[in-house]
Amino acid sequence: MATATDERVDSVKQWKIYLYLPLIYILMQVCSIFVAEGFTMMFNGNADLTEKEATFKGFAWSLFIVNTVAAILFLLLLTPNKKFFTVFKGKKASVGNTILWGFLGFILAMGGQMLAAAIEHAFGVKPGSENTALLADIAKTSPIVIISIVLFAPFLEEIIFRRVIFGGIYLKTNFWIAAVLSAVVFAAVHNELEHLLLYMMPALVFAYVYYRTKRLITPMISHLLMNGFVVIAQLNYEKLQRLQDMKQGIILFFN
Prior knowledge:
Layout: H1 4-44, H2 51-78, H3 95-122, H4 130-141, H5 145-172, H6 175-188, H7 196-213, H8 217-235, H9 237-254
Helix pairs in contact: 1-2, 1-5, 2-4, 2-5, 3-7, 3-8, 4-8, 5-6, 5-7, 5-8, 6-7, 7-8
C-alpha cells in the first residue's frame, strides 16, 4: 500500500521526467546542427559527391545519430518509470483495438490533412510543405534519413507532444484544451506557420486516438504509418505523376 511519502517521491520523479524529456529533445535539435556540419565537411572530401549531396548526407547522418542517442536516453528515463504512462482513468484498449485505432488514426490524420489543405488553398496559402519536399530530396541522396522520419520521429514526437504536453495539460484541464494547445505547439515547432492547420489536424487526431485507447503506442502507430506513406509518395512522385498523365491520356483517347 502506497504511503504519502511514496506518493511525494513519485510526484518528484514525474516532474523530473517532464523536465528532462523536453530538454533532451531540444538539445537533440541543437546538437544535430553541429553534428551535421562535421559530417558535411567529411562528405565534402568525397570527390564523387556534389556539395549539395554532401550537405544532404551530412544532415541525414547527423539526424540519425542524434535521434538514436535521444531514443536511448528516453528509454533509460522511462523504463524505470512506467507510471509516467498512466494518464487516463479506465481500462486500456486491447492489443487488437490498439492496432485498429492506430490504423484508423492514420486514415483520419490523412483525411484531416486533405481538409486542412483545402481550407488553406481557399485562403490563398501555397500548397505543399517545403520541409516534406526537402526531406524527400535528402532521402533520395541518403536513405538513412528514412529511419529518422518513419521510426524515430513518431517515437520521440509522440512522447513529447502527446504524453508530456498533451498528457500534462490534460491532467490539469480537459481533453479539448490539452488537444488544441498541444496541436498548436506541434504545428509551431515544424517551423511552417503558414501550414499551421495542416500540422494541427494530425496532431488533434493523434491526441484523440491516444485518449480513446489510453495507450501511447496508438498515436505512434498512426504517426509511423502517416510518415511512411508520405515518404513513399514523395519518393515515387515522378512515377505517380506519369501514371496520372497516362490515365488522363487514356480518358482523352476514349472521349
